[in-house]
């Protein structure tokens, strides 16, 4: 953590010598400033995120909740609960920054707000807030931390196979609560399903799988199966489905590509026929018809021009994919939030690139070593426990850091923005690694057990 606080000092210096923000011709600031410098942001000790300005947003402030280097031994570790992925927080939307005079721009005013029903302030919380209502399998030190109210030998206890359950969280790790399809509809804990077994949703599958269409025939029958996440080479054909509500012939959204792409090592699949998907990779990123090189620089003040992520498409599929955006996806150009380079921007997604495939491979690696509860599949904090891959090796950190970098691609390209968001984004390594002092005893016992188990399984 020394490194982070050192760079925090650098951020401080950079921001204090920062020139005036760039403004557009009518004086509207398009890219806001991001700052983690308390002198500048005037955040009080317990606030870890806030916004200044509503339309446009002019300043996004963040702060580290707990500094390992300056903390006193008696200080309780704290983390910032700020979670950009949740959609619960106000945040920059470049397309809406210019919406000061809402009436002039037409449409529903409230849809044009970056802060509607959103939190614009967040407070530091003790890390013990993340040691409550734990699912079975999580490390615990006391009964009350577990959702089942039972901590047994350092792990939250859950029911065994074939025991009566009411919901997934009643069952132990490795199980989900299955309702029988026949009278009298008993609900029993059942083992998570393996590859290509039929499923209704992700929770029924093993942690390193998701529930999706394995083939065109399955898609036509609406049958879903447990598919190993991020496992298939380019060219693999399976069933295509949509998760977005976007309609129109050939209209596909980034979320559709992400969902289908979960079966592919590249993280990307295109629609090759009405019911078929094919794994592929990013071929180029173009902007104004010019091919960009990583990290895909663009102009965020020009909200009309999007980045085109073009896929490698087989010739035999070219006719089908020429309709709509079946062969590419458009993503916005986002502000880097990088201090003095305020108008610098980067394309919002890198789906299908080598960066993306590397990140998802690291994530899949963590999940395939996970014996955590099915409800904890996407909880990286849980994967740190003895039910997960743990932190004895670098694997967990690699998955956390690489996923962070592709998720927040535009913000990690300029070091002062990267350092600042790492301080207050709850899914940063810095925030995820914080642990409850009260649990340290239990965790170290867990680690020893975990390593023992690993050695046996090897
Ligand atoms: C500046 O912002 C205004 C919105 O208030 C917008 O109408 C105008 O097109 C912007 N100018 C440029 C050059 O982006
Ligand atoms: C599959 O689901 C869609 C909509 O969810 C429905 O319209 C269609 O009839 C279903 N097909 C089968 C074979 O059940
Ligand atoms: C990009 O190229 C296409 C076809 O070659 C053309 O229709 C379009 O106008 C070009 N766009 C820009 C921004 O140059
Ligand atoms: C994530 O991005 C930062 C900033 O660009 C970089 O320093 C770091 O090495 C990256 N982490 C990984 C694991 O690639």
TrEMBL record:
Keywords noted in UniProt: Membrane, Signal, Transmembrane, Transmembrane helix
Chain segments annotated as transmembrane: 437-456
Signal peptide bounds: 1-22
Top-level taxon of origin: Eukaryota
Protein name: Dickkopf N-terminal cysteine-rich domain-containing protein
The organism of origin for this protein: Halteria grandinella
Lineage: Eukaryota, Sar, Alveolata, Ciliophora, Intramacronucleata
């Amino acid at each position: 953590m020394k490194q982070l606080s050192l760079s925090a000092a650098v951020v401080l210096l950079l921001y204090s010598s920062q020139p005036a923000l760039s403004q557009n011709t009518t004086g509207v600031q398009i890219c806001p400033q991001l700052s983690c410098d308390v002198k500048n942001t005037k955040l009080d000790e317990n606030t870890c995120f806030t916004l200044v300005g509503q339309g446009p947003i002019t300043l996004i402030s963040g702060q580290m909740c707990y500094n390992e280097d300056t903390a006193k031994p008696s200080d309780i570790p704290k983390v910032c609960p700020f979670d950009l992925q949740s959609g619960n927080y106000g945040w920059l939307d470049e397309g809406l920054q210019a919406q000061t005079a809402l009436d002039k721009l037409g449409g529903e005013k409230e849809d044009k707000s970056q802060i509607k029903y959103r939190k614009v302030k967040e407070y530091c919380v003790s890390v013990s807030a993340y040691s409550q209502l734990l699912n079975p399998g999580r490390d615990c030190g006391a009964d009350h931390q577990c959702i089942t109210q039972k901590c047994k030998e350092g792990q939250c206890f859950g029911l065994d196979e074939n025991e009566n359950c009411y919901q997934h969280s009643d069952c132990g790790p490795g199980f989900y609560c299955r309702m029988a399809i026949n009278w009298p509809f008993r609900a029993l804990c059942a083992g998570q399903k393996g590859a290509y077994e039929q499923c209704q949703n992700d929770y029924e599958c093993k942690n390193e799988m998701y529930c999706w269409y394995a083939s065109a025939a399955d898609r036509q029958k609406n049958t879903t199966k447990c598919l190993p996440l991020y496992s298939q080479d380019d060219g693999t054909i399976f069933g295509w489905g949509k998760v977005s509500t976007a309609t129109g012939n050939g209209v596909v959204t980034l979320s559709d590509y992400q969902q289908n792409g979960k079966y592919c090592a590249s993280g990307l699949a295109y629609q090759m026929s009405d019911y078929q998907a094919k794994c592929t990779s990013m071929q180029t990123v173009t902007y104004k018809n010019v091919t960009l090189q990583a990290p895909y620089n663009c102009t965020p003040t020009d909200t009309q021009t999007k980045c085109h992520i073009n896929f490698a498409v087989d010739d035999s599929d070219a006719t089908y994919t020429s309709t709509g955006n079946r062969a590419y996806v458009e993503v916005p150009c986002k502000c880097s939030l990088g201090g003095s380079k305020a108008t610098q921007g980067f394309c919002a997604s890198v789906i299908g690139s080598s960066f993306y495939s590397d990140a998802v491979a690291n994530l899949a690696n963590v999940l395939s070593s996970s014996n955590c509860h099915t409800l904890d599949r996407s909880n990286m904090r849980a994967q740190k426990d003895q039910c997960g891959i743990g932190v004895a090796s670098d694997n967990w950190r690699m998955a956390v850091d690489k996923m962070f970098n592709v998720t927040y691609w535009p913000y990690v390209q300029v070091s002062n923005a990267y350092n600042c968001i790492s301080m207050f984004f709850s899914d940063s390594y810095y925030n995820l690694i914080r642990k409850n002092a009260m649990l340290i005893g239990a965790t170290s016992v867990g680690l020893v057990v975990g390593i023992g188990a690993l050695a046996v399984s090897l």
